[in-house]
Amino acid sequence: MGDMRILPMGQSAMLVELDGLDAAMALFAAIEARRTAEIAGPHDGVRYDVFAGVREVVPAARTVLVRFDPLLTDRGALSAAVRGLTDADVSVERTTKDVTVPVMYDGEDLQSVADLLGVSAQEIVARHAGHAWRAAFGGFAPGFTYLTGGDPIFDVPRRADPRLEVPAGAVGLAGTFSGVYPRQSSGGWQLIGTTDTPMWDEHRTPPALIQPGDIVHFTPVRDSIRSVEAPPPDHEASSPRHGINGIRVDDPGMFSVFEDDGRHAATMGVTGSGASDPQAFHLANALVGNPAGTPAIETTGGGLRLTALGDVVLAVTGAPIGIVIHGTDGSRTAIGSQEPFLLAAGEQVTLGIPDHGWRDYIAMQGGFHVDRVLDSASADTLSSIGPKALQRGDTLASAHLPFASVGQPQPWPDDLPASGDLVELDVTLGPRDDWFTAQGVADLLGEEWTVTMQSNRVGLRLHGDRALERGVIRELASEGMVPGAIEIPANGQPVLFMRDQPVTGGYPVIAVLTEHALALAGQLQPGVRIRFREYRKDCKEQ
Asked: What is this structure's pTM?
């Protein structure tokens, strides 16, 4: 697998930098093989305990991101084990398949690609369809996979003016890669054709048609007749609206979604998602006696109003907020957060606007009946996966989960920052802090950064008086991202990724928040000022 450099990426991940794509794919296969052997049990009488805590492996163009549970796996031992992997470790059989994708070569950029490469459009089609492609790694959207190993002629620059809308099924080229857009999105790839074959289907197992390691064959089709299929059924997050025990959404407030502990499907281009403030989320479920990880409502900015359709027990945690119960007799009762309360049938509860903090969690005893995608009920706002954001009139039914005995839950502190307040967030430098000058790193830690209005579950856009100075100017090949990563785009102003962060990114990450700081960042409203503080306990280059 050649030379490798192992770089820190926060407290629970490391980025392995290699010589190129072939080495990255070999290392990905080796880690997956060892991890599979560990999950399956002893292999040849040996347990690979160091891999027991590996949670996710994300290959990219010349790197492999390894996410692990630091309570189960020691970073130093894992780094040493990764360095010791060889091609022989890929011997455990991995399930791959051949995939045939019919393509109508009618793309808008077909002729310009032909002109660029000095051949005819017919030859582009023949060369694209005449070589098998290998699925390398997932990309910017669920079901998007970078395909490599096609005809050597293909080395095509991205468009100088990316399109705002690329249709689902578009087949494109960028660099030496090919790929199929799984849904409508913006994009800068050169489009040479279209396919009706869906790359992503939530009702398929697995939802992504193409997995890393698969062999993909493009087959030209002659006619332009497209079959029109009926849209898949719209799976609501609620049960039928009559005769149920649950609550009705009278006003979803600024923004409300279901979240749980998230999912692990980065190889299919799907981010982890999950509660922005895990501690407040777990506290809400503990207060009503739900099993840990039961889906709850995450509401941002307050304003949520709910009516009980039967007697229900609720708990509200997170940002300190005014809570009022409106009785069926016209009475109004103010209650405190971070404690369970009974909402009788017909009663309404309203949440005010938080002065401090930004997000709250509403758990219902017995849990909510919510559809799951890839074993999670989390709404992924970047990928549009999972239950939709709550709307006025939605009926949310009980899942009737058994009561879980819990210990005394630890309350989340109520001294969260308000707009204008200054908060310190701990970070570990890396993996790409060496792409910045010493002054750039000093400015990251020395300057104040303000959370702007252009912030959501994907990330917080920050603004400061100084742009961070780069020492390395060249383009960075896309590599895996983690929640809490601080990416620095060309304008030098940080973007702090949150729970719905993209799976891969193309700008250098200068630092990553600690787990505690990431939970606190989930409560930062626009206008809060941030100062980053280096956390030195862990994460040196291995």
From this structure: 0.83
